[in-house]
Amino acid sequence: MTDSVLHVEVSRGVATLTLDSPANRNALSRAMRAQLRDALAAALADDAVRVVVLDHTGRVFCSGMDLSEAAGGAAADQGVNEFPDLLSTIWHSPKPVLAAVRGPARAGGVGLLAACDVVVAGASATFGFAEVRIGVVPAVISAVCRPRMHANAVHRLMLTGEVFDAATAQATGLVDLAVADDDVSATVEAQVTALAAGAPAALAETKRLLRSELDFAPLLETSARFFASAEGQEGIAAFREKRPASWVPQG
């Protein structure tokens, strides 16, 4: 039986889905993707649920794809193949989805929060598109990050892979509300209250009007191909072995 890596709580119209795999920094492992997919489906099918909240245990919100599972796999075997459906479910959810980010988010983890309707981040949260530094491409997550973020900012940050703070994330459009760490819970609660005050059908239709269609097909092929490429596998190995990748200038 697969261990639980996601904690689900439904209370007073709110389904809180808590990423609970701190040992691998809440990475998007096969288990995490499957459990998150099932929990989202259950929350969206439950008429008593008005708002969905993505939260996390541990210091890290989500470190992105589980690179231990990506090592050595062919393009068709890469975990990114299931990721678009997960992002699309959040993006097109008729119910508002809110992310509570209390720590670092990287790569696919940034995509996960970018698909949400409202993102609340604490001062300790940091963000980064680390893909190019390990020889892969932020293709799939670009579908949800580009509509959210200012064009020049997403261009620079995806190319450099630089880590940026919550204030910068808010200035670029990735984060909606950047607050003190101690204020995250209260801010999330206030946003949940505001969202739940909307009529369910009206909220769903408003989201439909605001959300564009996502075309993941060409992005998925690119992402999976680079994960399986020589550069991608070298970058993943270097990351896991805590050494510079072969293309990093030395001396």
UniProtKB/TrEMBL annotation:
One of its GO terms (molecular function) is catalytic activity. InterPro entries: ClpP/crotonase-like_dom_sf, Enoyl-CoA_hydra/iso, Enoyl-CoA_hydra_C, Enoyl-CoA_Hydratase/Isomerase. SUPFAM superfamilies: ClpP/crotonase. It comes from the Bacteria. Signal peptide: none annotated. Belongs to the enoyl-CoA hydratase/isomerase family. This is Methylglutaconyl-CoA hydratase.
